[in-house]
Amino acid sequence: MIELDRVAMRYGDNELFYDASLSLTPGSFHFLTGPSGAGKTTLIRLCYGDLLPTGGNVRLFGDPTVTLGRDALAHARRRIGVVHQDGQFLDHLSVEDNVALPLIVSGQLNAARRSEVRDLLGWVGLSSRRNARPQELSGGEKQRAALARALILSPDVILADEPTGNVDWEMSVRLLKLLLELNRLGKAVLLATHDLSLIRSVRGTVQARVLRLSDRRLGAGGADI
Ligand SMILES: Nc1ncnc2c1ncn2[C@@H]1O[C@H](COP(=O)(O)OP(=O)(O)OP(=O)(O)O)[C@@H](O)[C@H]1O
């Protein structure tokens, strides 16, 4: 569904990585680790066509992102749910409307979809916070709202950039469990995290690949779990 084929990425003279290959197939689960600044967020942005590679190819559902026009890219992106590191909420909207935003923007919000938004908020444990503003949420609540918003268009692929960054251990495990549940439903998941103990916590319970981005290379990050 998403394929990186010998991808290189540089910002000006700063080459972040080269020769990076990766295939996110249905039902696959990948952890992406690596030091701060190695390029994990950049790699995720390449995976949904937010950036174009400076070398190699990124293919979304078969088509190289460099060849996709605006409409085709928007169409492909609707199949990819992104959980951003910083949430990226609109502060003047309620949590519920933030989650519904992809439906509002694409003109799909009706009574049935509104009820799906509420179901999703229930699934991530935020029913009682649906009328709050994003700035009133705790770190863990924000991350769960970001996950709900990423899921509202029923994507085939979920890209999560440090979703457990600012939350305590219990909440990290809870978020990871939500992602694993989605993965069991057949969705491809890529989860970037610094937290190796989180990866170890699911050892033996899930088939996942651990990738490490460091020294400008994307490689295996230790034993797969
Ligand atoms: N738009 C940009 N223009 C120029 N340099 C950038 C841009 N975006 C990121 N960088 C640089 O690229 C490098 C990699 O950034 P990136 O955010 O991808 O790393 P990361 O591995 O996700 O880091 P962290 O774990 O701290 O979030 C950093 O040195 C960053 O300053």
From TrEMBL:
Residue ranges annotated for the ABC transporter domain, each copy included: 2-225
Domain of life, per lineage: Bacteria
Keyword Repeat: no
InterPro entries with a match to the protein in the record: AAA+_ATPase, ABC_transporter-like_ATP-bd, ABC_transporter-like_CS, ABC_transpr_LolD-like, P-loop_NTPase
Gene3D superfamilies associated with the record: P-loop containing nucleotide triphosphate hydrolases
Name of one Pfam family that matches: ABC_tran
Family matches, as SMART domains: AAA
GO molecular function, one term: ATP binding
A GO cellular component entry from the record: plasma membrane
UniProt-recorded name of the protein: ATP-binding cassette domain-containing protein
Keywords: ATP-binding, Nucleotide-binding
PROSITE patterns: ABC_TRANSPORTER_1 (PS00211), ABC_TRANSPORTER_2 (PS50893)
